[in-house]
């Protein structure tokens, strides 16, 4: 192909390389110039035009693109009509994309004028998704190059259809793992399986111990599960841990524990007979893409996954920033930047009865919300941020004279997540994180907030701190600002339990006493009465206690 300026006398039949604006209309780039086009150019005083002229043996860009798209399309891949030198390739069925790296490299090495770009090998795709595109750079290429590229990459792109449809999910339990976390994990898993047309045929909860897990695995396979996923209440730390031990006790084998994908390191791959068994890492409780997806999709497509396959995932395995990974901005165990307190005070008190705002109810002669704000102010947390919503004016009036920052949430009716999002957004960038405090906990002790802040130890991997009593977690919860994006992404009337569960190894558990108020929120009239009684009892004890030194 010849490319460059052509006198008008030689330009008929050539392809215009650039658009030319003329009175009465534009001759667009890519137009094959006709005698009428030449006459218009001449009338405009133009003597030459930059154009491409095909030579013997050349193949026009669209014909070349379609020829090569046909050549590279393998099983279950559909090439589309070529346009402006481009032919896109689409998945004809849902499945896992397979790319031959060697063939793709050979195709793109034929000539710089011929290119093929694809999605990542082993990508999960739905029917109709674009999976690749052939692009011819110039307006035409020699036919010999087209045939060389076609020969180099026959069937380079293919789709392995999803085959496994019946999945069993097992959830082991320990004290402190909330039912909401298990329910959300199941919902997230069902959503993950949707692209494959697979379904959860059974979900079973059981103690976090090897013996009951072995029985549950055997039962799941006997019931026809083609894949079993185990969500452990505690992360798998060793081949002798509960989940690997339970699989071996059932007669299965552990093929690989751990993978060079982050997040997703703590995945276990095993088999029980012919049925794959996945020990899910904590990040699999989140809908965000992680290493669990890489292996799950391959298995659902019936593709073999070996320990070596997993070991080779390191290049590209660093998927996203995670909380436990060191940040460029150094942090110390001293948390010199301090913490904010975010008090959630936007709810409608729907469980209290008609017309009652629990935050304004008095406990010990002061409104509930004022007691909570005063507790936060008596701690080292600064600033203290109060998120308002329902009856904003009355809540602000109840806090008159206190050194707090008000943030209004106009979307408070959508649930707690929107208030959390509003509060987190107001936290200064200069602080290390925030204590998320519920506004309806009138017995909250200032000392508890200080102890939660003291438990923060990023160098030791303690990026969250939560009060714990008898295996149950209470409030408030301290969060490193590394989790702010995840907290802000929550939707609906939910808290952050799923994020806690997915990052269990990063939680510092702070033992608390009952009188520190970490478990009593006044959601109902009965709980409000309990709070009033406890406050009165505490005040009586203060009045009757002997003076110091007596």
Short synopsis of the structure:
This protein has 550 residues and is an alpha+beta fold.
List keywords for this structure.
disordered C terminus, 550 residues, 30 strands, alpha+beta, six-stranded mixed β-sheet, eight-stranded mixed β-sheet, single chain
Topology:
Blueprint: E1 2-7, E2 15-16, E3 20-22, E4 25-27, H1 35-43, E5 48-53, E6 58-60, H2 61-72, E7 77-79, E8 86-91, E9 95-99, H3 101-109, E10 114-118, E11 124-125, E12 130-136, E13 140-142, H4 143-152, E14 157-161, E15 166-173, H5 179-194, E16 199-207, H6 210-222, E17 227-231, H7 242-249, E18 253-257, E19 268-272, E20 275-280, H8 291-300, H9 307-311, E21 339-345, E22 362-363, E23 366-367, H10 368-377, E24 384-388, H11 392-398, E25 405-408, H12 416-425, E26 433-438, H13 446-455, E27 464-469, E28 472-473, E29 477-480, H14 484-488, H15 497-502, E30 507-511, H16 525-544
Parallel strand pairs: 15-16, 15-17, 17-20, 21-24, 21-26, 24-25, 27-30
Antiparallel strand pairs: 1-5, 2-5, 3-4, 6-13, 7-8, 8-12, 9-11, 9-14, 10-12, 18-19, 19-20, 22-23, 26-29, 27-28, 27-29
């Amino acid at each position: 192909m010849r490319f460059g300026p052509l006198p008008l006398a030689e330009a008929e039949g050539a392809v215009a390389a650039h658009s030319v604006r003329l009175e009465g209309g534009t001759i667009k780039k890519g137009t094959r110039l006709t005698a009428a086009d030449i006459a218009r150019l001449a009338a405009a005083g133009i003597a030459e035009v930059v154009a491409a002229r095909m030579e013997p043996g050349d193949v026009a860009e669209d014909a070349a693109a379609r020829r090569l798209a046909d050549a590279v399309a393998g099983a279950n891949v559909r090439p589309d009509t070529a346009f402006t030198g481009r032919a896109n390739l689409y998945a004809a069925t849902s499945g896992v994309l397979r790319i031959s790296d060697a063939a793709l490299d050979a195709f793109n090495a034929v000539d710089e004028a011929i290119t093929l770009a694809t999605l990542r090998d082993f990508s999960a795709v739905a029917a109709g998704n674009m999976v690749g595109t052939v692009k011819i750079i110039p307006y035409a290429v020699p036919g010999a190059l087209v045939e060389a590229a076609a020969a180099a990459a026959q069937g380079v792109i293919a789709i392995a259809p999803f085959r496994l449809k019946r999945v069993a999910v097992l959830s082991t339990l320990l004290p402190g793992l909330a039912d909401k976390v298990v329910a959300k994990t199941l919902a997230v898993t069902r959503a993950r399986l949707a692209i494959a047309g697979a379904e959860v045929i059974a979900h079973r909860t059981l103690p976090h111990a090897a013996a009951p897990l072995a029985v549950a695995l055997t039962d799941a396979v006997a019931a026809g599960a083609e894949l079993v996923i185990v969500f452990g209440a505690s992360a798998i730390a060793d081949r002798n841990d509960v989940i690997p031990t339970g699989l071996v006790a059932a007669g299965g084998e552990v093929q690989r524990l751990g993978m060079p994908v982050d997040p997703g390191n703590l995945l276990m791959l095993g088999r029980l007979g012919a049925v794959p068994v996945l020990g899910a890492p904590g990040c699999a409780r989140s809908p965000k893409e992680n290493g669990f997806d890489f292996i799950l999709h391959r298995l659902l497509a019936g593709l073999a996954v070996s320990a070596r396959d997993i070991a080779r995932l390191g290049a590209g395995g660093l998927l996203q920033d995670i909380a436990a990974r060191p940040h460029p901005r150094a942090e110390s165990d001293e948390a010199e930047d301090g913490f904010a307190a975010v008090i959630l005070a936007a709810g409608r008190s729907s469980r209290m009865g008609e017309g009652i705002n629990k935050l304004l109810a008095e406990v010990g002669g002061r409104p509930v919300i004022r007691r909570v704000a005063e507790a936060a102010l008596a701690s080292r947390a600064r600033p203290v941020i109060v998120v308002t919503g329902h009856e904003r004016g009355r809540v602000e009036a109840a806090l008159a004279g206190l050194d707090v920052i008000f943030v209004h949430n106009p979307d408070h009716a959508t649930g707690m997540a929107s208030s959390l999002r509003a509060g987190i957004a107001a936290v200064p960038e200069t602080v290390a994180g925030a204590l998320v405090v519920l506004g309806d906990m009138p017995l909250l002790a200032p000392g508890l907030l200080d102890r939660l802040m003291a438990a923060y130890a990023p160098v030791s991997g303690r990026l969250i701190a939560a009060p714990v009593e008898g295996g149950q977690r209470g409030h408030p919860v301290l969060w490193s600002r590394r989790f702010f994006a995840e907290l802000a992404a929550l939707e609906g009337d939910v808290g952050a339990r799923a994020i806690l569960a997915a990052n269990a190894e990063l939680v510092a558990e702070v033992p608390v006493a009952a009188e520190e108020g970490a478990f009593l929120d006044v959601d109902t009239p009965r709980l409000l009465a309990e709070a009033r009684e406890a406050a009165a009892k505490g005040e009586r004890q203060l009045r009757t206690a002997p003076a110091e030194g007596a």
